[in-house]
Amino acid sequence: MRLLFLAVLRRHTGNAVTAERVRDHLEAAGHVCLLKDAFDLESSSEVAHLIRAENLEAALALHLYRGGRLLQGHGIPFGIIFGGTDLNEDVKQREKNEVMGRVLGEARFAVAFTESMKETAQTQWPHARDKIYIQSQGVMTVPNAAFNWNTFLHRSGINQSADNLHIFLLVCGLRQVKDPLYLVDAFSEWHREEPNVYMVIVGPEVDPVFTREVKAKVKRTAGVRLLGEMPQGDLHAALRNCFAVVNSSMSEGMSAAILEAMDLEVPVLARNIPGNAAVVKHEVTGLLFSDPQDFVQLAKRLVREPALEKELVANGREYVRRYHSWQAERDTYQNLVRTLEGSTGE
């Protein structure tokens, strides 16, 4: 089957990574999957032209509003994958909410990453209750064996012996919803007390204006460093070498960096928001913080208590193996897309 797949493909955002993985799953089943950035298609008429020109038989959208609204009314069946901000942010705007409800009405199926995402969608659009499925994101990590941790530290401007350091890695695209500056002042204060703790923010420059703000702040803040995006294999190797992975986002669908850290047996400290709390069970698979001061207290505890670190890592690894199987994710998407075969929408 020839499929159109619309997603938000800004590099190394969570949705872009998910889209690449889902495309791989569908192509492995023999489908031709044309992956397009929803931001590159301004109107429904452009999509209609693309469907005719490429002889597309069905479609999939990752993000109910940004992708889904472009798929209505073309006479081909389609499915939806919730992105995160569609349910956490767009849903609060009445006009967008109504559009998303209509899209769900036409969709054959919708996929939520978590139970809480499914509940949010069902509450907003009860008519779609029977077509929403839960499929957690699958995880596969492949650290680059040639990666050099000391070189990474040097690039970060950290010139101390790696043996005595505690590096906290915050992986995110530089945009406001990821809130990379949330912990910076509190962390810097801790660094002044204990000069062997550092926070390194790693990720692509998604929002140019906000990136300038982040760079300016980090430049004048002790104990915090900023690096640009890295190849995935290098990033996985850096995750494996760091002391802990941090997530300070205001909104998440399901954080790939958190799941990857668990898979690589690295402890996780995450801001207590619904998307993170769906994955991180406090003091079981990771630590959840409510504000910057709470983060510092929990981070200090993690440094002081090796037994806690060991327990979190073991539980996190087991959780990912059990609930975030890459193969299970592949099976789900291949089975759901079969429901789009053989007939067209009205």
Automatic annotation (TrEMBL):
Pfam annotation, one family: Glycos_transf_1
Q: By its UniProt entry, which CDD domains does this protein fall under? A: GT4_PimA-like
Against InterPro entries, the record matches this protein to:
Glyco_trans_1, Glycosyltransferase_G1
In this chain the Glycosyl transferase family domain maps to 161-318
Q: Which UniProt keyword terms apply here?
A: Glycosyltransferase, Transferase
| Gene Ontology molecular function | glycosyltransferase activity
Know the name of this protein?
Glycosyltransferase 1 domain-containing protein 1 isoform X5
